């Protein structure tokens, strides 16, 4: 099996820089769009055969060094009592968002091995399919990001409702994040037991917080998840967007590899994170919409800044955009593998 991704996560030498892409399975791929004409996103997540097929699409078409489980960050919401669906063009919509402490108290505790058994079945099937190919990455959401979705009722640009809840009802906030930390810890342990070989914790919206607020309202709950899965023998990636100001704190919360976006040069980000961690990133995904020369120059800059040091996993600073040409993603993966200083 191609294990250069796992070796890079452990900061071991590799023959070339490993590469995978967040949202590498998705709407920019023709086969995925064809499936979405027949099934909703949640239907695909609920049917292991469909989720396996979508997970494998980029592995079949692109020189990626890892597969990431096709699922959705918010799947734990439903068994917790937070029903949601996807609104076309807008993203997830939670039917009854969290507004008061009483809403937090009504959330249910559940066993992911039962309530999310279909996800674990998908993982086991994928391990069979990927046995001699590439490792499989599982994932989950950090408590701050999960709480943000639950309070906002969907995506947001200001997170004003989240912060208002956090500041005005701190006890309820800490209760909510404690619940999400417990749920996500169990869910990720179950994914590891089912066979994922690495996990990524998405704290996608933690960059909305100041360092002071991150340390008070988010870090302790993320740390609980990392502590729960730290001894399970798989590398852990910790990722957020817009986290330039809090990179040392992300590293303090946990993770073998810290994912960074494009807003800070990779070598500067690595210095803030610390040499004892790996780093993942950090190409701006919009570069995949432009001319190849600019794309390759920008990728080479990322690779030069990594300097061949063990521990770099090449990725985008966020997910592949829906209007990205597949051939650009294919060419970028080849370019990363062929690159030499």
Could you please describe the fold and organization of this structure?
With 341 residues, the protein is α/β, with parallel strands linked by helices. It has one domain (4-338): TIM Barrel (Alpha-Beta Barrel), CATH 3.20.20. Helix content is 48%, strand content 11%. The protein has helices at residues 4-9, 30-36, 41-46, 48-61, 77-80, 101-105, 112-115, 117-129, 143-152, 160-168, 170-194, 211-229, 247-253, 266-273, 292-306, 326-338, and strands at residues 67-68, 84-87, 91-94, 136-141, 198-202, 236-239, 257-259, 278-283, 312-316. The chain is globular. The relative contact order is 0.14.
> How many domains make up the 3D coordinates?
1
CATH classification class: Alpha Beta
Order of helices and strands: HHHHEHEEHHHEHHHEHEHEHEHEH
- The CATH architecture can be named as Alpha-Beta Barrel
* Strand line-up of the largest beta sheet: 1-4-5-6-7-8-9
Number of strands: 9
State which percent range the strand residues make up: 5-15%
Helix content bin: 40-55%
Q: Please state the average pLDDT score.
A: 96
DSSP helical segment count: 16
**Coarse morphology:** globular
Low-confidence stretches: none
CATH topology: TIM Barrel
- Report the sheet with the most strands, covering strand number, pairing sense and barrel closure: 7 strands, parallel
Cα end-to-end separation: 26 Å
Radius of gyration: 19 Å
Classify the secondary structure makeup into a structural class.
Answer: alpha/beta
